[in-house]
Amino acid sequence: MSSNNVVIKIAQPYAVALLELAKTKKATERVSKDIQLVQNTLSQSEKLKNFLANPLKTVEAKKQVIGATFGDQISENTLSFLMILVDRKRIAMLDTIANKYLELAYQMDSLTIANISTSIALKSDQENLLIEKIKVMTQAKEVKLIISVDPELIGGFTIQIGSKVIDTSIRGQLRQMASHLDVVAT
């Protein structure tokens, strides 16, 4: 089992617990916004991500940084959850837990998340067309695109919906040809 699968298996119960807490407090939308804010902050600050993942930093230091960074921007429920992650030494998995939480929350709302990597930025009409195609493919009521630009794709794009990946990139096609040539050569 790969280490990524292990992390996902560990993250799942925390994501489910946060979703259950949010549902009982009737704050699912608020907690989802909080988690998106935390995720965005982590993606923009490699320094913060590294600090929280550093096992040499004390629990108290991590709590202080989390409180100072997010204290006035997120709800008390979300802040308490982050503190629990620090106490249980799971804060390094926050990004995976957040992804899993959002996946479960969106699933509950019949919303499909599609992670799109493109070689260049998409125009809004291209995004709308992609949303409509994904709605047809997944039979979802709503589709949310999370778009990232990856120039290494050379051209085209990749779509990830859950565990399913559709790769139309030139890089993917080159890899496919290379693996086919390896099979033919042997």
TrEMBL record:
Predominant subcellular localization, coarse grouping: membrane
Keywords associated with the record: ATP synthesis, Hydrogen ion transport, Ion transport, Membrane, Plastid, Transport
Ribonucleoprotein among keywords: no
GO MF annotation, one: proton-transporting ATP synthase activity, rotational mechanism
Gene Ontology CC: one annotated term: membrane
Protein's UniProt keywords contain Plastid: yes
Gene3D superfamilies: N-terminal domain of the delta subunit of the F1F0-ATP synthase (1.10.520.20)
Subcellular locations according to the entry: Membrane
One Pfam family this sequence matches: OSCP
Family statement: Belongs to the ATPase delta chain family.
The protein's name in its UniProt record: ATP synthase CF1 delta subunit
Gene: atpD
